[in-house]
Structures are given as structure tokens and as C-alpha cells.
Specification:
two-stranded antiparallel sheet; alpha/beta; homodimer; Rossmann fold
Chain lengths: ~375, ~375
């Protein structure tokens, strides 16, 4: 096992009816900004429950945080916080709204140009407004971690930052509030969580049986529960299990003490920044090819993955590995997320542009062994056509 | 899945050489009390490393915290804290030292008689001194939770209390510092962690596949790594895996959203309070019988445990369950912890006294279904002879 630090102070309030707990979780004298995306929370009743929970407090709203939240949009929220002297933020939505709220929290009283927060990847954050979240879309894990990704449209760049100052104070996870999600978002969420686990699990062995088994437990559960949620969208337990999987997939626990990859995410970010694909779509495209191209470096873990997650123990090593990767791809497709560049009208003609963006973002030695050069990324993209 | 809250703000600093991180983790102007048990930390170098990490700070010592830390001893530490105006505590040791330090932290500036903290089970704690831990004995999980058990010798009572104010600020877990532990303590630690998992796992199904798989992952790892540590006490990875298992066994995670039992612990506490048995010894005695006596209420989970942890899938349900319980008992014995009352020179003649103590502590409806009456506890004890 590798040395590690683990720290995660976010309070999770999980279950039916928990939005009412806002009344206790948000300070009674708070001046609150509620941030959200489109209007779905107004259609499905979440917004009303939130307002009821915040009763008695000064509450302002900021809507329109888009998928892959943009610096340009978020700076409008920062202005609102400053103008109205608000002191508590509440993100109501999925990973994009929460990521965006983290940026607003850090930028509100940042001394200097808030753009520097992204340039320095968050290392220069010295304070942030406190904030909570009401999660409506299980996927990114942002509700229980200290990371965020913000897009600067003008630069076609998705830029991650992190700071222990942007852990949510609390996150409310009510699985019943996810019944009305479009199935595309449900499938995306399952694929996103699955890919998060794989980035932390599918590397090389360091004798970490607990981390491995926790990761495998999440993968097995997503494989079991994912198809169930498509078949029975209103089943509470299925929703609950997927929601808790997605949170645990990226709250720091399964990655503590083990190598981590993240090359799939870095290549995927460029696909979103350049062509506007959903985050999960990019992962579904890149991950299977990434595993195939890097089969040698990941051989031991791929065999473990094949055996323990897909129950593949017969045949040659290469047969088992290839079959496990094929099953991974099939699972993503089963969740409604296409896994080929051509499914999104992209192909060979786009690869140079993607690589150029990777290079300009200094993503030239990715992966747990820092051996994913631009040549390797090219092979991955070529295999993803 | 049941509704749940999860909150755990303790920072974990895990790995080789981490005691040096005390220099960053403890405030530079802190007036520190270092609390420990016997002299082992002076013999194995841990004490010197701790003092080196605390260099530049005012540091006082309090030694002699015994296994099953007593109110009587701890109140002496409280007096020292008050007299010397100390403002930061550092527990260096195992669960007893850490549990004791939690009490000292809460009692130091408690308004009223600190005994009331135990009488109210911690609900009346409104502030506590900040403290960290350097863990030298993986077992209880106290290094990453908000619970503590204190013994009042004069009453022959072990009393638990908890409060979110007594989470350690940080805990340093260096597996290399456990090489010199006596094997009895190593075996006790593995059994203790195993029993913690079982109290949260072996109840009845609530459709919580992630929690189940995490619990099973811990059990499987303890079963694999336990015998290895007895055979190769100086193997770093084995020590590391056991240490991380023990922490995760009782940090709130695997118990979130599922029913919990704890009847074995409650009966075990009386055995320690009355006869001075090691905590893990009492669990090894009580747990197998507890599972046998309550086979009907726990049938579904016992079958899952038999299949997934012990790979028992042939034979009748009862055969599989009985075999799983037998293997559990054998594992405890393999770890050097005897599992029969008679191994400790106790027997039928002691059962009435144990039941009387349970009754006096209002432990008359224990377990996840509150159906472990004194009659059930009697059967468990009779089967434990």
C-alpha cells in the first residue's frame, strides 16, 4: 500500500424526505444563494421543498448553470453574491451545479482575478464561502469531494481545481428525487461513476486488498443496479444504491493508498471542450480503448478485474482481458451511452485537433506510470473510432 | 437502504514515517499533553519520534492509561490538563489510550461533574479540547470515530459515550510501528475488527449491496491477512492492510444505512467489567454463540455470509450456516483468541452474575430487532461454555 492522506469532512444526509433537514443544516441567519441549472427542479417539486426548508432566511436564486459549467456564467453568480452580500451557497442539482458552486464559493471573496483560481488549480484559495448541496443527479461525486471542473468557453478549455476549502459542508441525497431524471442522464451517471472507480482501480497492484475489494464492490453494484434503474425507474432501493455508489466512487476513499490513472478523463475533457459531448459519453468512448492500448502495463489488474468483476476465469490471459474490456463496453452501451467516436459523428479527421489540445494543456505524460504520451493517446483515439 | 447520516472529519495520515507530520498537524503554539499507556512506546522508539515531531511546543506527559481505561485514572489526566492549562491532547497508543483521551478532551472544561458525561452517554458535551492520535495498535477503530468506552472500576461498569466533538482532528497510522506488538494484542486486534464488521453486517437484508460488499471485503481481508501477520510479523503490507481494515471496520461507513446489532459487544462488556477479560476475548466467546442462538432472525444474512465470505454453497441452509459459524470460531482460535468461557476459567456458575449486570445496565432488549432479552443472553452464555 502507498502512503496516503485521507480527509473528508462533508456531512451526508441520505434518504427519503431529507430536504426538510435544510432547516437545521443551514444557519438560521444565513443569507443564501440557491444555485441551479435549468428548470427541472421547479417541475419536480425539489425547488419548493428547498424553499420550504430555507424558510425564514434571506434567499436569492441563480439559475442557468449549464452542463460543464462555464467561467463566464459563474462569474455572474459571483457578482450577485458580492452585490447582495450573501454568505451561504446551496447547490441544487448534479455535478455541474455543484462544481460551479465550488468555484463561486472560492471566487466570491478571492483577492485578485478569480481566473487565477483555475490557473493555479486551486492552490491559491485561502478562504471560501460555506455551501451545501441537494443532489439530484448521481454521477460525479462532487457532492462529497473537494474537486471541481470549470470550462472557459472562450478558450475551449475544461480546467480542474481542488481545495480542502471547497468540501461541501453537507450534501442531501434523496434517491426519490432522481425518479424524474431523463434516462440519458441516468445512463451517463452510471457510466461516470463506473469510470471513476476504474481510474483508481485499474492500474497496477500495490497489495491493497481492501481498496481493491471496495472498488470491485462498487463496480459489481453498478453492473447489477444500472440495468434495473432503466427497467424500473421508480424503484427506490435501486436509485438509492446507484446514488451511494456514485458518491463513494469519488470521495477519496477507494483511491487512498493506491496509484491512480485519470488519463481517460483528461482525453475525455478535450472531447467535451472541443465538440460538446457529455462527460460520460467521452469516458465511454475512451476507457475501453485506453485499457486495450495499455494492456501490458495494466495486465495484472486487468486479469483481476476480469475474474472478480466479470467472473472470467477460463481461456488465455489475453482472451480474459479482451473479454473483460468487451463486457465493459457492452455495459456502457447497455446503459444507453455509445462508445465509438463515429457514434457522435467524429472520426480520424478530429484526432489531430484533440491531440493538439492535449499538448496545449500539457497533457503529454498521463496515467499512473506517466507513460501515456501523445502517441499513446493517438492510438487510443484511433482505436475509439 | 435505511436513511442515514454520515459524518467523519478525522484526517488520516497513513504510512511509513508519518509521525514526523506531527510538526505540521499540531499547532505550533499548542500546549500539549501526550497520553499513553505502559512503557512500550518508550522501548520501541515511538515516543522519541513523537517528541521530535512536537519539538518547540510545551509538552507534558501522562502515562499509565490502562486497558479498559478507568474514570479514576482519566480524572487524574483531567486535573493535569487544568493545572497546566494545556490545550491540545495527543493520544499515543491503541484504542484504550484513544478512548481515554476522548474522555479527557470532553471532561477538561466540562461544567459540572465529568461523571455526568458518562451518565448522559455524551449527549451533554458542548465543547472538547482538540486532540490527535498516533495509533500503535490496530483494533478498535477509535482513531477515526466519535465513540469511547470508559470503565468505572468502583461500579464494575463499562460505559460508552459518543459525541461529534470527540472525533480526533487527525490520526497517524504508521504500520511499521506495530511490528513490536505482542502477538496476543495482534490477534485481539484482528478479532475486534472482525467483530465490529459483523455487528454491522450480520443482521437482516435491507437491499444495501454496497455496504454488504464493503463489509465482506473487510472480513475477507482480515481472514487472509490475519494468519499472515502471525507468520511474518515484520511484513509491512500485511500490517498496513490490517491497520486500514481495523479503521474502516468502525468509522461509520459500513454501518451507514443498514441495521446494526451490537448485542455481542454489550454482553462482552459485562465479561470484561466483571472478570477482566480482554475486550476481544469477550467478543470471541460471545459472537459465535450469538449467531447460533439467533439463527432464525439472521438467516438470510448468515447464508450470504456463508457463501460470500466462506465460499460455502453446498449442503442444506442449516449446514451452511453452522459451518460458517464454526469457521468463524476457528478463525478466532487461529488468531490465538480462545472462544469458550471455560478457556478463561468461567462457566455456568458465572451466568447469573453476568445477567444481573446486564439487567442493571438496562441491556434487556439488545440487537437489531431488540429481541435479545435476558433469556436470549442466557442461552448465548450457556452455549459459550
Amino acid at each position: 500500500m502507498l502512503n496516503f492522506d485521507f480527509y473528508n469532512p462533508t456531512r451526508i444526509l441520505f434518504g427519503k424526505g431529507r430536504i426538510a433537514d435544510l432547516a437545521k443544516a443551514v444557519p438560521a441567519d444565513a443569507r443564501v444563494l440557491v444555485l441551479y441549472g435549468g428548470g427541472s427542479i421547479k417541475a419536480n417539486g425539489v425547488f419548493d421543498e428547498v424553499m420550504s426548508g430555507l424558510a425564514g432566511r434571506t434567499v436569492k436564486e441563480f439559475s442557468g448553470i449549464e452542463p460543464n459549467p462555464s467561467y463566464e456564467t459563474l462569474m455572474q453568480a459571483v457578482e450577485l453574491v458580492r452585490r447582495e452580500n450573501l454568505d451561504f451557497l446551496l447547490a441544487v442539482g448534479g455535478g455541474s451545479v455543484i462544481d460551479g458552486t465550488k468555484f463561486v464559493a472560492a471566487a466570491a471573496h478571492f483577492e485578485g482575478d478569480p481566473w487565477e483560481i483555475l490557473e493555479k488549480r486551486g492552490r491559491n484559495i485561502t478562504q471560501a464561502l460555506p455551501f451545501g448541496t441537494v443532489l439530484t443527479l448521481p454521477a460525479t461525486g462532487s457532492e462529497m469531494n473537494n474537486g471541481s471542473v470549470v470550462t472557459r468557453k472562450s478558450l475551449q478549455a475544461k480546467i480542474p481545481f481542488s481545495s480542502n476549502l471547497v468540501f461541501p459542508k453537507f450534501s442531501i441525497l434523496d434517491p426519490a428525487k432522481t425518479y424524474t431524471l431523463p434516462l440519458r442522464q441516468v445512463g451517463n451517471g452510471v457510466v461516470d461513476a463506473y469510470a471513476h472507480v476504474m481510474e483508481q482501480y485499474l492500474t497496477y497492484p500495490v497489495n491493497s486488498p481492501v481498496q481493491d475489494r471496495f472498488a470491485e464492490g462498487l463496480l459489481l453494484t453498478l453492473i447489477e443496479e444500472g440495468p434495473k434503474v432503466l427497467a424500473n425507474p421508480d424503484d427506490y432501493d435501486t436509485r438509492a444504491n446507484i446514488m451511494w455508489c456514485a458518491t463513494l466512487a469519488l470521495n477519496g476513499l477507494i483511491g487512498a493508498g493506491v496509484p491512480q490513472d485519470w488519463a481517460t478523463h483528461m482525453v475525455g475533457h478535450e472531447l467535451t471542450a472541443l465538440y460538446g459531448l457529455d462527460h460520460a459519453q467521452t469516458l465511454a468512448i475512451v476507457l475501453p480503448s485506453m485499457l486495450s492500448v495499455r494492456k501490458e502495463g495494466k495486465r495484472a489488474k486487468l486479469l483481476q478485474y476480469a475474474a472478480r468483476v466479470w467472473n472470467l476465469t477460463d481461456g488465455s490471459e489475453d482472451q480474459r482481458i479482451d473479454e473483460a474490456i468487451r463486457k465493459t463496453r457492452d455495459f456502457f452501451e447497455q446503459m444507453g451511452v455509445k462508445t465509438r467516436l463515429t457514434d457522435y459523428k467524429l472520426g480520424t479527421q478530429n484526432i489531430d485537433a484533440i491531440l493538439k489540445h492535449l499538448e496545449s494543456h500539457r497533457m503529454v505524460t498521463l496515467g499512473e506510470q506517466r507513460d501515456v504520451t501523445l502517441d499513446v493517446s493517438r492510438k487510443v483515439l484511433e482505436m475509439s473510432i
